[in-house]
């Protein structure tokens, strides 16, 4: 375990949700405008921005700006069965295999003679279709939680992100944050770590920074914080979850 120090970057937990929904709507509106004006490759700009952002802030793009994520959260949630995803689909090898196949198909499309405007529409369409089907059959953001190729890449990059969602020693282990998480219990291991060690612990790198856990925590034990490495014998260690 690495010894890390944290510094809270925002104290008003209600402000996250006040800001996040408008950002999601802006992401959807811009996507709609780009499609209307036939600027189809905007989605690659979105993805590249998300990958770069994940190096510092984890999957913040997924929680704050992704049009598909916004559709799943605010649209598909209205008719979702809200059932758990089968354990097999949660395995790391499944999402990384899907990611590898997805990237291979994407490269093959670029190297083929297919009309270029078909490629981004096929990518966006497959993402929306997969997300909608999984969200309807299971829970709204099931696709985002484990199976989105872009999300899987951001998860890998975000493991070393400096901006983390951290649970501190004030945690009462009530698991309210785990129940509120839209991507299947991302805070759970961190809660267990704090309960066992009484040291602060960062959420799993699957976390999409939606900050719903921050808003619901009754003991104000969860906060967005910058994380920096300290010497191994320094106090206040933080375990960054995978």
From the N-terminal CA to the C-terminal CA, the straight-line distance is: 12 Å
Helix count equals: 11
Uncertain spans, ≥5 residues at pLDDT below 50?
230-237
Order of strands side by side in the largest beta sheet? 1-4-2-3-5
Features:
Alpha-Beta Plaits, 53% helix, 242 residues, alpha+beta, globular, five-stranded mixed beta sheet, 11 helices
Verbal overview:
The protein has eleven helices and five strands; from the N terminus they run βααααααααβααβαββ. The protein is globular, with a radius of gyration of 18 Å. Helix 2 runs parallel beside helix 8 (149-158). It has two domains: 4-10 and 164-240, Alpha-Beta Plaits, CATH 3.30.70; 16-156, no CATH class. It has a five-stranded mixed beta sheet, with helices on one face. With 242 residues, the protein is an alpha+beta fold. The two termini are 12 Å apart.
